[in-house]
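Async update (no meeting this week)

Hi team, since we skipped the sync, here's where things stand on the single-chain job. The sequence we agreed to prioritize is pasted below, unchanged from the tracker. I ran it this morning and attached the output directly underneath so nobody has to dig for it. Comments welcome in thread, and please keep replies under the output.
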Amino acid sequence: MKFYPEGTNKDLSKKFETVEELKEAMVRGEIIESKVLLCDREHNLHVDLGAVRGIIPRIEGAVGIEDNTVRDIALISKVNKSVCFTVLGFQRDIYGNSLAILSRRSVQLRCMNEFLNTLIEGDVIDARVTHLEKFGAFIDIGAGINALIPIDMLSVSRISHPCERLYEGEEIKVVLRKKEPDKMTFSLKELLGTWQENADLFDAGETVTGVVRSIEDYGVFIELAPNLAGLAEAQSGLFVGQRASVFIKSVIPEKMKIKLVIVEKFDDTANPDGLTYFIDSGHIDFWQYSPQGSTKSIFTDFNEFSDKV
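Output:
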């Protein structure tokens, strides 16, 4: 069975017209999704199932809540967001109304045992961006289970904050970079194309839009794509994140260099553009960013868990 990041599979989101329908879903062990209406004082999550209200007891809210390895903020932050769960049973509330008892933890355990534990380094999967921090992007890799993409694995082109590449709620593809007993680390850059694949999208003599990524004494690095940047002469009045139109003077594969001339600079700051994937499924054993014959070799060997230059 395939497990999805929460909120990405619309087929799981449904309302039930009768309690009997919900009981049938319980017997089948069906995974359901619904938005959290509220998180009460005991940190139980409440959802609307249509025929009845459902409650996810705090202890069933996530793997790790019981042993305090996951904090209650992980439950509080789910209000007005979709969560997945199965039906454990039914009981009556103080007014005599039926109440469905639900478990998100059970889905997460199934996801870990049937999906995540089967992954190996180099596997490409679906994910959803949940939170951005200066050091990286947190992603949902299935059933609300979180993992991290470190900032240096978001692209070859360097950025100062993940918000320059991704936005919260974005559905993306990722590749498993390193698997450890207590965590998984993922990468994005290997899916965004090699130097040559990206350079083939541009020709010398063209004028295109780029983003200022780094300002050095010897020049300005302008990003043309997440995995491709060129160098222009230093200019006053530039700032990191600024958009600029650039003339492509030359493309030199053997040195992995693109020489640029800044034509015009704009006052606006660039927002993340939609990502273009050169790999979006399957498995990667070895990925070489640098072109054949280049004086510098840049690659990722997923069998050795490390980038090498």
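Quick observations from my side:
The helical segments are 19-28, 73-76, 105-114, 195-199.
The mean pLDDT is 94.
Reply here if anything looks off.
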